[in-house]
Amino acid sequence: MSTIKAGARAAPRRISLKARTREGRFALALLIPSIVVVFGVVIYPLIKTMITSLYAVTSPFPGSYPFVGLRNYTTALTQTEFWSSVLRTLYFTVVSTGLELVLGLGIALLLNAPLRMRWVFRAIVVMPWALPTIVNAALWKYMFDAQYGVINAALTQLHLQDAYRAWFSQPFQALNIVILADVWKNTSLAAFFLLAGLTTIPRDLYEAARIDGETAWGSFLRITLPLLKPAILIVLVLRTIEAFKVFDIIFVMTRGGPVNGTESVAFYTYQQAFSNEFFGYGAALSYLIAIFVMALAVVYVRLLRSDREVFA
Amino acid sequence: MAPSRAYRIFIHVAAIVVSLVFLAPFAWLAIASVSLQADLLALPLRWIPSHVSFERYQQIFSSTGDTIFANFRQSLINSLIVASVTVVVSTVVGLLGAYAFARVRFRLARATLLTFLATYMVPPIALVIPLYLIMVQLHLLDTKLGLIVVYCSFTTPFVLWTMGNYFQTIPMELEEAAQVDGCTRVGALVRVILPIARPGLLSTMLLAFLIAWDEFLYALIFTSTDRAKTIPVAIAEFTGRYSTDFGLQAAGGLLAAVPPVLLAVAFQRHIVGGLSAGAVKG
After folding, report:
1. Would you give the DSSP letter of residue B4?
2. What's the predicted TM-score (pTM) here?
3. DSSP letters for B53-105
4. Between chains, do A309 and B246 touch, taking CB under 8 Å as contact?
5. Which residues of chain B make contact with A46, given a CB cutoff of 8 A?
6. What is the DSSP secondary-structure string of A214-283?
7. Distance of alpha carbon B136 from alpha carbon B139, whole angstroms
8. What ipTM was predicted for this assembly?
9. pLDDT by residue (tens digit) across B88-123?
10. A193/B275 Cβ within 8 A
11. Which residue in A4, A67, A156, B226 has a CA-CA distance of 20 to 30 Å to A125?
Protein backbone atom coordinates (compact mmCIF):
# COMPACT_ATOMS: atom_id res chain seq x y z
CA MET A 1 0.00 0.00 0.00
CA SER A 2 1.13 3.54 -0.69
CA THR A 3 0.66 4.55 2.95
CA ILE A 4 3.85 2.74 3.81
CA LYS A 5 5.76 5.67 2.27
CA ALA A 6 3.89 8.28 4.32
CA GLY A 7 5.99 7.69 7.40
CA ALA A 8 5.88 5.25 10.25
CA ARG A 9 4.08 7.44 12.74
CA ALA A 10 1.14 8.61 10.70
CA ALA A 11 0.58 5.44 8.77
CA PRO A 12 -0.93 3.05 11.32
CA ARG A 13 -3.53 5.55 12.39
CA ARG A 14 -4.55 6.46 8.87
CA ILE A 15 -4.82 2.86 7.88
CA SER A 16 -6.85 1.92 10.91
CA LEU A 17 -9.22 4.85 10.51
CA LYS A 18 -9.73 4.15 6.83
CA ALA A 19 -10.03 0.47 7.56
CA ARG A 20 -12.48 1.19 10.31
CA THR A 21 -14.83 3.21 8.11
CA ARG A 22 -14.52 0.52 5.47
CA GLU A 23 -15.38 -2.11 8.05
CA GLY A 24 -18.28 0.02 9.22
CA ARG A 25 -19.67 0.30 5.71
CA PHE A 26 -19.23 -3.39 5.12
CA ALA A 27 -21.11 -4.18 8.34
CA LEU A 28 -23.89 -1.80 7.40
CA ALA A 29 -24.22 -3.36 3.96
CA LEU A 30 -24.50 -6.80 5.55
CA LEU A 31 -27.01 -5.58 8.11
CA ILE A 32 -29.28 -3.53 5.87
CA PRO A 33 -31.46 -6.48 4.77
CA SER A 34 -32.02 -7.47 8.42
CA ILE A 35 -32.77 -3.89 9.41
CA VAL A 36 -35.34 -3.56 6.64
CA VAL A 37 -36.97 -6.92 7.35
CA VAL A 38 -37.19 -6.38 11.12
CA PHE A 39 -37.51 -2.68 11.79
CA GLY A 40 -39.41 -2.01 8.59
CA VAL A 41 -42.21 -4.06 10.14
CA VAL A 42 -41.80 -3.25 13.81
CA ILE A 43 -40.95 0.45 14.15
CA TYR A 44 -44.14 2.06 12.88
CA PRO A 45 -46.50 -0.15 14.93
CA LEU A 46 -44.36 0.44 18.03
CA ILE A 47 -44.64 4.21 17.66
CA LYS A 48 -48.28 4.03 16.66
CA THR A 49 -49.12 1.91 19.70
CA MET A 50 -47.23 4.33 21.93
CA ILE A 51 -49.35 7.20 20.56
CA THR A 52 -52.56 5.16 20.79
CA SER A 53 -51.84 4.47 24.46
CA LEU A 54 -52.14 8.22 25.12
CA TYR A 55 -55.62 8.51 23.65
CA ALA A 56 -59.01 7.08 24.61
CA VAL A 57 -59.23 5.07 21.40
CA THR A 58 -62.40 2.98 21.34
CA SER A 59 -62.46 1.52 17.83
CA PRO A 60 -59.82 -0.05 15.60
CA PHE A 61 -60.28 2.60 12.92
CA PRO A 62 -58.72 6.04 12.51
CA GLY A 63 -60.69 8.98 13.79
CA SER A 64 -60.36 11.69 16.38
CA TYR A 65 -60.21 10.44 19.95
CA PRO A 66 -59.74 12.49 23.12
CA PHE A 67 -56.16 12.84 24.35
CA VAL A 68 -55.87 11.46 27.88
CA GLY A 69 -52.12 11.62 28.55
CA LEU A 70 -50.95 8.85 30.85
CA ARG A 71 -54.41 8.12 32.16
CA ASN A 72 -54.62 4.74 30.41
CA TYR A 73 -51.49 3.74 32.29
CA THR A 74 -52.66 5.04 35.65
CA THR A 75 -56.03 3.35 35.16
CA ALA A 76 -54.25 0.04 34.60
CA LEU A 77 -51.96 0.48 37.59
CA THR A 78 -54.87 1.21 39.91
CA GLN A 79 -57.10 -1.58 38.64
CA THR A 80 -57.38 -4.73 40.77
CA GLU A 81 -58.27 -6.72 37.66
CA PHE A 82 -54.94 -5.75 36.12
CA TRP A 83 -52.95 -6.60 39.24
CA SER A 84 -54.63 -9.95 39.73
CA SER A 85 -53.80 -10.83 36.12
CA VAL A 86 -50.19 -9.81 36.84
CA LEU A 87 -50.11 -12.01 39.93
CA ARG A 88 -51.56 -14.98 38.03
CA THR A 89 -49.01 -14.45 35.28
CA LEU A 90 -46.20 -14.30 37.83
CA TYR A 91 -47.46 -17.51 39.45
CA PHE A 92 -47.66 -19.18 36.04
CA THR A 93 -44.19 -17.92 35.11
CA VAL A 94 -42.43 -18.89 38.34
CA VAL A 95 -44.04 -22.32 38.74
CA SER A 96 -43.80 -23.39 35.10
CA THR A 97 -40.24 -22.12 34.62
CA GLY A 98 -39.16 -23.62 37.94
CA LEU A 99 -40.61 -27.02 37.11
CA GLU A 100 -39.23 -26.94 33.58
CA LEU A 101 -35.79 -26.16 34.93
CA VAL A 102 -35.77 -28.88 37.60
CA LEU A 103 -37.37 -31.59 35.46
CA GLY A 104 -35.33 -30.46 32.47
CA LEU A 105 -32.13 -30.86 34.46
CA GLY A 106 -33.12 -34.39 35.46
CA ILE A 107 -33.86 -35.30 31.85
CA ALA A 108 -30.67 -33.64 30.64
CA LEU A 109 -28.66 -35.75 33.11
CA LEU A 110 -30.44 -38.86 31.80
CA LEU A 111 -29.74 -37.85 28.21
CA ASN A 112 -26.09 -37.47 29.14
CA ALA A 113 -25.95 -40.82 30.98
CA PRO A 114 -24.68 -44.05 29.36
CA LEU A 115 -28.10 -45.22 28.15
CA ARG A 116 -28.61 -47.93 25.60
CA MET A 117 -30.26 -46.56 22.49
CA ARG A 118 -29.76 -43.06 23.69
CA TRP A 119 -30.80 -41.60 20.34
CA VAL A 120 -34.26 -43.15 20.72
CA PHE A 121 -34.67 -41.49 24.09
CA ARG A 122 -33.45 -38.21 22.67
CA ALA A 123 -35.93 -38.45 19.78
CA ILE A 124 -38.77 -39.05 22.25
CA VAL A 125 -37.74 -36.13 24.44
CA VAL A 126 -37.72 -33.76 21.46
CA MET A 127 -41.29 -34.63 20.45
CA PRO A 128 -43.43 -32.62 22.93
CA TRP A 129 -41.37 -29.55 22.27
CA ALA A 130 -42.04 -29.79 18.51
CA LEU A 131 -45.78 -30.24 19.06
CA PRO A 132 -47.47 -26.95 18.11
CA THR A 133 -48.66 -24.96 21.13
CA ILE A 134 -52.24 -24.84 19.89
CA VAL A 135 -52.36 -28.61 19.34
CA ASN A 136 -50.83 -29.13 22.78
CA ALA A 137 -53.49 -26.89 24.33
CA ALA A 138 -56.34 -28.64 22.50
CA LEU A 139 -54.93 -32.05 23.43
CA TRP A 140 -54.71 -31.31 27.16
CA LYS A 141 -58.07 -29.61 27.15
CA TYR A 142 -59.50 -32.78 25.69
CA MET A 143 -57.62 -35.06 28.07
CA PHE A 144 -58.96 -33.11 31.05
CA ASP A 145 -62.48 -32.93 29.63
CA ALA A 146 -65.11 -33.30 32.36
CA GLN A 147 -67.20 -35.93 30.52
CA TYR A 148 -65.02 -37.59 27.90
CA GLY A 149 -61.48 -36.91 29.09
CA VAL A 150 -58.94 -39.70 29.46
CA ILE A 151 -57.68 -38.34 32.78
CA ASN A 152 -61.10 -38.81 34.35
CA ALA A 153 -61.46 -42.21 32.69
CA ALA A 154 -58.05 -43.41 33.84
CA LEU A 155 -58.34 -42.12 37.41
CA THR A 156 -61.83 -43.57 37.80
CA GLN A 157 -61.01 -46.95 36.26
CA LEU A 158 -57.94 -47.20 38.51
CA HIS A 159 -60.25 -46.33 41.46
CA LEU A 160 -58.17 -43.28 42.31
CA GLN A 161 -61.31 -41.16 42.22
CA ASP A 162 -64.97 -42.08 42.60
CA ALA A 163 -66.59 -39.83 40.05
CA TYR A 164 -65.69 -37.74 37.03
CA ARG A 165 -64.39 -34.32 37.94
CA ALA A 166 -64.92 -30.99 36.21
CA TRP A 167 -61.24 -30.09 36.20
CA PHE A 168 -61.68 -26.62 34.76
CA SER A 169 -64.41 -25.51 37.16
CA GLN A 170 -62.09 -24.31 39.94
CA PRO A 171 -60.05 -21.23 38.92
CA PHE A 172 -56.85 -22.21 40.72
CA GLN A 173 -57.04 -25.82 39.62
CA ALA A 174 -57.61 -24.71 36.02
CA LEU A 175 -54.51 -22.53 36.21
CA ASN A 176 -52.46 -25.45 37.49
CA ILE A 177 -53.68 -27.66 34.65
CA VAL A 178 -52.60 -25.01 32.16
CA ILE A 179 -49.22 -25.03 33.88
CA LEU A 180 -49.08 -28.83 33.62
CA ALA A 181 -49.72 -28.66 29.88
CA ASP A 182 -47.08 -25.97 29.47
CA VAL A 183 -44.51 -27.90 31.52
CA TRP A 184 -45.15 -31.13 29.62
CA LYS A 185 -44.35 -29.38 26.35
CA ASN A 186 -41.55 -27.03 27.32
CA THR A 187 -39.48 -29.18 29.68
CA SER A 188 -37.90 -30.65 26.54
CA LEU A 189 -36.50 -27.31 25.50
CA ALA A 190 -34.98 -26.80 28.94
CA ALA A 191 -33.54 -30.32 28.84
CA PHE A 192 -31.89 -29.75 25.46
CA PHE A 193 -30.31 -26.45 26.49
CA LEU A 194 -29.05 -28.01 29.73
CA LEU A 195 -27.77 -31.08 27.86
CA ALA A 196 -25.88 -28.76 25.53
CA GLY A 197 -24.31 -27.22 28.64
CA LEU A 198 -23.55 -30.63 30.18
CA THR A 199 -21.64 -31.83 27.12
CA THR A 200 -19.21 -28.93 27.49
CA ILE A 201 -18.13 -30.04 30.99
CA PRO A 202 -14.86 -32.01 30.75
CA ARG A 203 -15.09 -35.56 32.11
CA ASP A 204 -11.68 -35.25 33.80
CA LEU A 205 -13.19 -32.88 36.33
CA TYR A 206 -15.41 -35.66 37.64
CA GLU A 207 -12.50 -38.10 37.64
CA ALA A 208 -10.40 -35.68 39.67
CA ALA A 209 -13.25 -35.04 42.09
CA ARG A 210 -13.72 -38.78 42.62
CA ILE A 211 -10.07 -39.27 43.35
CA ASP A 212 -10.38 -36.45 45.90
CA GLY A 213 -13.11 -38.50 47.57
CA GLU A 214 -16.06 -36.42 46.37
CA THR A 215 -19.44 -38.19 46.34
CA ALA A 216 -21.65 -38.16 43.24
CA TRP A 217 -23.97 -35.66 44.91
CA GLY A 218 -20.98 -33.55 45.91
CA SER A 219 -19.62 -33.34 42.39
CA PHE A 220 -23.11 -32.53 41.12
CA LEU A 221 -23.27 -29.57 43.51
CA ARG A 222 -19.70 -28.41 43.11
CA ILE A 223 -18.97 -29.18 39.44
CA THR A 224 -22.16 -29.68 37.43
CA LEU A 225 -24.30 -26.88 38.80
CA PRO A 226 -21.69 -24.08 38.75
CA LEU A 227 -20.57 -24.99 35.23
CA LEU A 228 -24.16 -25.19 34.04
CA LYS A 229 -24.85 -21.65 35.17
CA PRO A 230 -24.79 -20.15 31.64
CA ALA A 231 -27.16 -22.82 30.32
CA ILE A 232 -29.48 -22.43 33.30
CA LEU A 233 -29.58 -18.68 32.77
CA ILE A 234 -30.40 -19.09 29.07
CA VAL A 235 -33.31 -21.36 29.95
CA LEU A 236 -34.48 -18.86 32.57
CA VAL A 237 -34.32 -15.99 30.09
CA LEU A 238 -36.13 -17.77 27.28
CA ARG A 239 -38.78 -19.43 29.42
CA THR A 240 -39.63 -16.54 31.74
CA ILE A 241 -39.97 -14.12 28.84
CA GLU A 242 -42.19 -16.53 26.94
CA ALA A 243 -44.17 -17.45 30.04
CA PHE A 244 -44.82 -13.85 30.94
CA LYS A 245 -46.33 -13.25 27.51
CA VAL A 246 -48.43 -16.44 27.71
CA PHE A 247 -51.52 -16.22 25.54
CA ASP A 248 -52.00 -19.04 22.99
CA ILE A 249 -52.36 -21.95 25.39
CA ILE A 250 -54.85 -20.01 27.53
CA PHE A 251 -56.83 -18.91 24.48
CA VAL A 252 -57.47 -22.53 23.55
CA MET A 253 -57.63 -24.25 26.94
CA THR A 254 -59.72 -21.90 29.06
CA ARG A 255 -60.31 -18.50 27.37
CA GLY A 256 -59.20 -16.97 30.65
CA GLY A 257 -61.90 -18.70 32.69
CA PRO A 258 -63.36 -19.82 34.97
CA VAL A 259 -64.11 -16.43 36.57
CA ASN A 260 -60.90 -14.99 35.11
CA GLY A 261 -58.97 -17.68 37.01
CA THR A 262 -56.53 -18.24 34.15
CA GLU A 263 -56.51 -14.75 32.69
CA SER A 264 -52.87 -13.80 32.07
CA VAL A 265 -51.78 -10.21 31.48
CA ALA A 266 -51.54 -10.82 27.74
CA PHE A 267 -54.99 -12.38 27.71
CA TYR A 268 -56.42 -9.52 29.80
CA THR A 269 -54.89 -7.10 27.28
CA TYR A 270 -56.39 -9.02 24.38
CA GLN A 271 -59.81 -8.95 26.06
CA GLN A 272 -59.66 -5.23 26.73
CA ALA A 273 -58.53 -4.38 23.20
CA PHE A 274 -60.51 -6.84 21.10
CA SER A 275 -63.59 -7.75 23.10
CA ASN A 276 -64.22 -4.40 24.78
CA GLU A 277 -62.61 -2.32 22.02
CA PHE A 278 -60.65 -0.24 24.55
CA PHE A 279 -57.77 0.06 22.13
CA GLY A 280 -56.08 2.95 23.93
CA TYR A 281 -56.18 1.07 27.20
CA GLY A 282 -55.03 -2.15 25.50
CA ALA A 283 -52.10 -0.29 23.94
CA ALA A 284 -51.07 1.02 27.36
CA LEU A 285 -51.34 -2.49 28.81
CA SER A 286 -49.16 -3.96 26.07
CA TYR A 287 -46.55 -1.29 26.74
CA LEU A 288 -46.62 -2.20 30.42
CA ILE A 289 -45.96 -5.86 29.52
CA ALA A 290 -43.14 -4.85 27.19
CA ILE A 291 -41.57 -2.64 29.87
CA PHE A 292 -41.74 -5.42 32.43
CA VAL A 293 -40.26 -8.03 30.09
CA MET A 294 -37.55 -5.59 29.03
CA ALA A 295 -36.64 -4.91 32.67
CA LEU A 296 -36.43 -8.64 33.25
CA ALA A 297 -34.19 -9.00 30.20
CA VAL A 298 -31.85 -6.24 31.37
CA VAL A 299 -31.37 -8.06 34.68
CA TYR A 300 -30.65 -11.28 32.82
CA VAL A 301 -28.21 -9.69 30.38
CA ARG A 302 -26.29 -8.34 33.39
CA LEU A 303 -26.18 -11.81 34.90
CA LEU A 304 -25.15 -13.42 31.62
CA ARG A 305 -22.53 -10.90 30.61
CA SER A 306 -19.16 -12.48 30.16
CA ASP A 307 -16.00 -11.13 28.61
CA ARG A 308 -17.10 -11.87 25.10
CA GLU A 309 -17.70 -8.59 23.36
CA VAL A 310 -20.80 -8.79 21.22
CA PHE A 311 -22.51 -11.91 22.41
CA ALA A 312 -23.47 -12.03 26.02
CA MET B 1 -14.55 -47.73 37.02
CA ALA B 2 -17.66 -48.95 35.24
CA PRO B 3 -20.94 -47.57 36.53
CA SER B 4 -22.61 -49.87 39.04
CA ARG B 5 -25.38 -52.22 38.04
CA ALA B 6 -27.92 -50.47 40.24
CA TYR B 7 -27.09 -47.14 38.61
CA ARG B 8 -27.49 -48.63 35.13
CA ILE B 9 -30.86 -50.12 36.00
CA PHE B 10 -31.97 -46.85 37.58
CA ILE B 11 -31.18 -44.70 34.55
CA HIS B 12 -32.89 -47.10 32.18
CA VAL B 13 -36.02 -47.29 34.30
CA ALA B 14 -36.06 -43.51 34.63
CA ALA B 15 -35.66 -43.08 30.87
CA ILE B 16 -38.54 -45.46 30.23
CA VAL B 17 -40.81 -43.65 32.70
CA VAL B 18 -39.99 -40.27 31.13
CA SER B 19 -40.57 -41.71 27.65
CA LEU B 20 -43.99 -43.03 28.66
CA VAL B 21 -45.00 -39.66 30.10
CA PHE B 22 -43.96 -37.98 26.87
CA LEU B 23 -45.43 -40.57 24.52
CA ALA B 24 -48.78 -41.25 26.19
CA PRO B 25 -50.51 -38.03 25.05
CA PHE B 26 -49.21 -38.61 21.52
CA ALA B 27 -50.53 -42.16 21.61
CA TRP B 28 -53.92 -40.94 22.72
CA LEU B 29 -53.95 -38.35 19.95
CA ALA B 30 -53.29 -41.12 17.43
CA ILE B 31 -55.86 -43.50 18.93
CA ALA B 32 -58.56 -40.83 19.13
CA SER B 33 -57.97 -39.86 15.50
CA VAL B 34 -58.82 -43.38 14.27
CA SER B 35 -61.57 -44.18 16.80
CA LEU B 36 -65.26 -43.98 16.09
CA GLN B 37 -67.04 -41.07 17.73
CA ALA B 38 -69.18 -43.58 19.67
CA ASP B 39 -66.08 -45.15 21.26
CA LEU B 40 -64.70 -41.76 22.27
CA LEU B 41 -67.98 -40.76 23.91
CA ALA B 42 -68.57 -44.15 25.55
CA LEU B 43 -68.79 -44.49 29.32
CA PRO B 44 -66.65 -46.10 30.59
CA LEU B 45 -64.22 -44.96 27.95
CA ARG B 46 -63.12 -47.62 25.45
CA TRP B 47 -59.34 -47.30 25.36
CA ILE B 48 -58.95 -49.67 22.47
CA PRO B 49 -61.29 -48.60 19.66
CA SER B 50 -63.87 -51.20 18.67
CA HIS B 51 -63.24 -50.29 15.07
CA VAL B 52 -60.31 -48.53 13.45
CA SER B 53 -61.25 -45.94 10.88
CA PHE B 54 -58.99 -43.79 8.76
CA GLU B 55 -61.96 -42.00 7.32
CA ARG B 56 -61.13 -38.63 8.86
CA TYR B 57 -57.68 -38.61 7.27
CA GLN B 58 -59.14 -39.74 3.99
CA GLN B 59 -61.65 -36.92 4.01
CA ILE B 60 -59.05 -34.33 4.99
CA PHE B 61 -56.90 -35.42 2.08
CA SER B 62 -59.56 -35.84 -0.58
CA SER B 63 -62.61 -33.79 0.32
CA THR B 64 -63.41 -30.99 -2.12
CA GLY B 65 -65.53 -27.88 -1.89
CA ASP B 66 -66.12 -25.73 1.16
CA THR B 67 -66.08 -28.48 3.79
CA ILE B 68 -64.36 -28.51 7.15
CA PHE B 69 -62.03 -31.20 5.78
CA ALA B 70 -60.99 -29.22 2.72
CA ASN B 71 -60.45 -26.17 4.93
CA PHE B 72 -58.20 -28.19 7.18
CA ARG B 73 -56.13 -29.35 4.21
CA GLN B 74 -55.84 -25.84 2.84
CA SER B 75 -54.69 -24.44 6.16
CA LEU B 76 -52.01 -27.14 6.34
CA ILE B 77 -50.80 -26.10 2.89
CA ASN B 78 -50.89 -22.43 3.92
CA SER B 79 -48.83 -23.19 7.01
CA LEU B 80 -46.28 -25.12 4.95
CA ILE B 81 -45.89 -22.26 2.47
CA VAL B 82 -45.78 -19.51 5.08
CA ALA B 83 -43.31 -21.30 7.37
CA SER B 84 -41.01 -22.43 4.53
CA VAL B 85 -40.78 -19.06 2.83
CA THR B 86 -40.27 -17.38 6.20
CA VAL B 87 -37.39 -19.74 6.98
CA VAL B 88 -35.69 -19.19 3.62
CA VAL B 89 -36.00 -15.40 3.66
CA SER B 90 -35.01 -14.89 7.29
CA THR B 91 -32.09 -17.32 7.02
CA VAL B 92 -30.58 -15.62 3.97
CA VAL B 93 -31.12 -12.15 5.41
CA GLY B 94 -30.08 -13.12 8.94
CA LEU B 95 -26.91 -14.96 7.84
CA LEU B 96 -25.42 -11.81 6.34
CA GLY B 97 -26.22 -9.81 9.47
CA ALA B 98 -24.94 -12.57 11.75
CA TYR B 99 -21.66 -12.58 9.85
CA ALA B 100 -21.36 -8.83 10.43
CA PHE B 101 -21.85 -9.29 14.19
CA ALA B 102 -19.41 -12.17 14.42
CA ARG B 103 -16.62 -11.03 12.11
CA VAL B 104 -16.76 -7.33 11.27
CA ARG B 105 -15.65 -4.78 13.85
CA PHE B 106 -17.92 -1.77 13.91
CA ARG B 107 -19.11 0.74 16.43
CA LEU B 108 -22.32 0.05 18.33
CA ALA B 109 -22.23 -3.63 17.32
CA ARG B 110 -23.43 -4.77 20.71
CA ALA B 111 -26.10 -2.08 20.96
CA THR B 112 -27.34 -2.97 17.47
CA LEU B 113 -27.60 -6.65 18.32
CA LEU B 114 -29.42 -5.88 21.58
CA THR B 115 -31.85 -3.65 19.69
CA PHE B 116 -32.63 -6.54 17.36
CA LEU B 117 -33.09 -8.87 20.32
CA ALA B 118 -35.25 -6.31 22.14
CA THR B 119 -37.93 -6.74 19.46
CA TYR B 120 -38.32 -10.27 20.84
CA MET B 121 -39.45 -8.82 24.18
CA VAL B 122 -42.33 -6.86 22.69
CA PRO B 123 -45.57 -8.81 23.08
CA PRO B 124 -47.22 -9.34 19.68
CA ILE B 125 -50.35 -7.81 21.10
CA ALA B 126 -48.54 -4.43 21.17
CA LEU B 127 -48.05 -4.49 17.40
CA VAL B 128 -51.07 -6.29 16.13
CA ILE B 129 -53.56 -3.40 15.84
CA PRO B 130 -51.38 -0.92 13.90
CA LEU B 131 -50.13 -3.79 11.74
CA TYR B 132 -53.72 -4.77 11.03
CA LEU B 133 -54.48 -1.26 9.78
CA ILE B 134 -51.34 -1.21 7.59
CA MET B 135 -52.32 -4.57 6.13
CA VAL B 136 -55.74 -3.23 5.24
CA GLN B 137 -54.16 -0.28 3.42
CA LEU B 138 -51.63 -2.43 1.56
CA HIS B 139 -54.24 -5.09 0.74
CA LEU B 140 -52.16 -7.66 2.59
CA LEU B 141 -54.93 -8.69 4.95
CA ASP B 142 -55.78 -12.38 4.66
CA THR B 143 -52.78 -13.08 2.42
CA LYS B 144 -49.87 -15.45 2.93
CA LEU B 145 -47.48 -12.68 1.89
CA GLY B 146 -48.71 -10.49 4.74
CA LEU B 147 -48.04 -13.26 7.26
CA ILE B 148 -44.61 -13.99 5.78
CA VAL B 149 -43.57 -10.34 6.08
CA VAL B 150 -44.61 -10.24 9.73
CA TYR B 151 -43.10 -13.64 10.57
CA CYS B 152 -39.73 -12.69 9.06
CA SER B 153 -39.62 -9.73 11.44
CA PHE B 154 -39.37 -12.06 14.43
CA THR B 155 -37.48 -15.03 12.97
CA THR B 156 -34.67 -12.82 11.62
CA PRO B 157 -33.48 -11.56 15.05
CA PHE B 158 -33.43 -15.20 16.11
CA VAL B 159 -31.20 -16.14 13.15
CA LEU B 160 -28.94 -13.17 13.88
CA TRP B 161 -28.42 -14.36 17.42
CA THR B 162 -27.93 -18.09 16.92
CA MET B 163 -25.87 -17.86 13.74
CA GLY B 164 -23.82 -14.98 15.11
CA ASN B 165 -22.97 -17.18 18.08
CA TYR B 166 -22.21 -20.10 15.81
CA PHE B 167 -19.93 -18.14 13.48
CA GLN B 168 -17.87 -17.05 16.48
CA THR B 169 -16.98 -20.66 17.22
CA ILE B 170 -15.41 -21.10 13.77
CA PRO B 171 -11.70 -20.29 13.71
CA MET B 172 -10.81 -17.07 11.94
CA GLU B 173 -7.79 -18.69 10.23
CA LEU B 174 -9.92 -20.72 7.82
CA GLU B 175 -11.45 -17.59 6.43
CA GLU B 176 -8.16 -15.74 6.27
CA ALA B 177 -6.68 -18.60 4.30
CA ALA B 178 -9.55 -18.40 1.82
CA GLN B 179 -9.01 -14.67 1.47
CA VAL B 180 -5.32 -15.18 0.83
CA ASP B 181 -6.35 -17.59 -1.91
CA GLY B 182 -8.27 -14.75 -3.54
CA CYS B 183 -11.77 -15.17 -2.15
CA THR B 184 -13.75 -12.05 -1.29
CA ARG B 185 -15.14 -11.93 2.22
CA VAL B 186 -18.65 -12.75 1.08
CA GLY B 187 -17.13 -15.47 -1.11
CA ALA B 188 -15.34 -16.88 1.95
CA LEU B 189 -18.60 -16.74 3.89
CA VAL B 190 -20.45 -18.74 1.25
CA ARG B 191 -17.69 -21.20 0.31
CA VAL B 192 -15.78 -21.73 3.55
CA ILE B 193 -17.84 -20.67 6.54
CA LEU B 194 -21.29 -21.91 5.54
CA PRO B 195 -20.25 -25.52 4.89
CA ILE B 196 -18.58 -25.66 8.32
CA ALA B 197 -21.54 -23.95 9.94
CA ARG B 198 -24.00 -26.47 8.52
CA PRO B 199 -24.99 -28.04 11.86
CA GLY B 200 -25.69 -24.63 13.34
CA LEU B 201 -27.48 -23.58 10.18
CA LEU B 202 -29.69 -26.66 10.22
CA SER B 203 -30.67 -26.21 13.85
CA THR B 204 -31.34 -22.50 13.29
CA MET B 205 -33.55 -23.22 10.28
CA LEU B 206 -35.37 -25.94 12.18
CA LEU B 207 -36.06 -23.64 15.13
CA ALA B 208 -37.16 -20.83 12.82
CA PHE B 209 -39.53 -23.25 11.10
CA LEU B 210 -41.02 -24.31 14.42
CA ILE B 211 -41.45 -20.68 15.51
CA ALA B 212 -43.25 -19.82 12.27
CA TRP B 213 -45.34 -22.99 12.31
CA ASP B 214 -46.37 -22.32 15.90
CA GLU B 215 -47.33 -18.65 15.56
CA PHE B 216 -50.91 -17.98 16.52
CA LEU B 217 -51.95 -14.43 17.44
CA TYR B 218 -50.99 -12.66 14.20
CA ALA B 219 -52.53 -15.41 12.11
CA LEU B 220 -55.68 -15.25 14.23
CA ILE B 221 -56.11 -11.51 13.64
CA PHE B 222 -54.79 -11.20 10.09
CA THR B 223 -56.40 -14.16 8.36
CA SER B 224 -60.03 -15.06 7.94
CA THR B 225 -60.43 -17.43 5.00
CA ASP B 226 -58.80 -20.37 3.26
CA ARG B 227 -56.55 -17.99 1.37
CA ALA B 228 -54.15 -17.60 4.24
CA LYS B 229 -55.51 -19.23 7.41
CA THR B 230 -52.81 -21.32 9.08
CA ILE B 231 -53.22 -24.61 10.90
CA PRO B 232 -53.07 -23.26 14.49
CA VAL B 233 -55.94 -20.90 13.69
CA ALA B 234 -57.92 -23.68 12.00
CA ILE B 235 -57.50 -25.92 15.04
CA ALA B 236 -58.32 -23.19 17.55
CA GLU B 237 -61.49 -22.32 15.66
CA PHE B 238 -62.41 -25.91 15.32
CA THR B 239 -62.03 -26.71 19.03
CA GLY B 240 -64.27 -23.74 19.72
CA ARG B 241 -66.96 -24.63 17.21
CA TYR B 242 -67.15 -28.43 17.27
CA SER B 243 -66.01 -28.90 20.83
CA THR B 244 -67.09 -32.55 21.11
CA ASP B 245 -65.86 -33.85 17.78
CA PHE B 246 -62.70 -35.10 19.46
CA GLY B 247 -61.83 -37.54 16.70
CA LEU B 248 -61.57 -34.86 14.06
CA GLN B 249 -59.73 -32.54 16.43
CA ALA B 250 -57.24 -35.32 17.05
CA ALA B 251 -56.77 -36.09 13.36
CA GLY B 252 -56.24 -32.40 12.55
CA GLY B 253 -53.92 -31.98 15.52
CA LEU B 254 -51.87 -34.98 14.53
CA LEU B 255 -51.49 -33.74 10.97
CA ALA B 256 -50.48 -30.31 12.28
CA ALA B 257 -47.90 -32.00 14.50
CA VAL B 258 -46.37 -34.22 11.80
CA PRO B 259 -44.16 -31.69 9.95
CA PRO B 260 -42.54 -30.07 13.02
CA VAL B 261 -42.22 -33.33 14.98
CA LEU B 262 -40.69 -35.21 12.04
CA LEU B 263 -38.24 -32.40 11.38
CA ALA B 264 -37.29 -32.18 15.04
CA VAL B 265 -36.78 -35.95 15.37
CA ALA B 266 -34.80 -36.11 12.11
CA PHE B 267 -32.50 -33.25 13.09
CA GLN B 268 -32.37 -33.85 16.85
CA ARG B 269 -28.61 -34.33 16.78
CA HIS B 270 -28.17 -30.88 15.29
CA ILE B 271 -30.37 -29.27 17.92
CA VAL B 272 -27.98 -30.18 20.69
CA GLY B 273 -24.96 -29.49 18.48
CA GLY B 274 -26.28 -26.11 17.43
CA LEU B 275 -27.23 -25.10 20.94
CA SER B 276 -23.99 -26.22 22.55
CA ALA B 277 -21.79 -24.51 19.99
CA GLY B 278 -23.48 -21.19 20.30
CA ALA B 279 -25.76 -20.12 23.01
CA VAL B 280 -24.54 -22.13 25.92
CA LYS B 281 -20.82 -21.57 25.95
CA GLY B 282 -19.80 -19.81 29.15
Report:
1. P
2. 0.89
3. --HHHHHHHH--SS-HHHHHHHHHHHHHHHHHHHHHHHHHHHHHHHHHHHH--
4. no
5. 122, 126-127
6. --HHHHIIIIIHHHTHHHHHHHHHHHHHHHHT--HHHHHHTTT-STTTT--HHHHHHIIIIIS--HHHHH
7. 5
8. 0.91
9. 999 999 999 999 998 888 888 888 998 998 888 888
10. yes
11. A156
Mutate to test the interface with B, among A48, A50, A111, A131 (most CBs of B within 10 A): A131
Type of residue at B95: L
Domains of chain B (ranges plus CATH)?
A: 1-53 (no CATH), 67-277 (1.10.3720.10)
DSSP category for residue B120: T
Of A38, A61, A106, the CB nearest to B116: A38
CA distance A134 to A119: 27
Out of B45, B264, B279, the one facing A150 most closely (by C-beta) is B45
SS3 B139: coil
**Most distant CA atoms of chain B, gap in Å:** 75
Of A45, A116, A310, the CB nearest to B130: A45
**Can you tell me the distance from the alpha carbon of B215 to that of B212, in angstroms, rounded to the nearest whole number?**
5
Torsion of CA B46, B51, B52, B58, to 10 degrees: -120
pLDDT at B60: 87
Tally A–B CB contacts below 8 A: 293
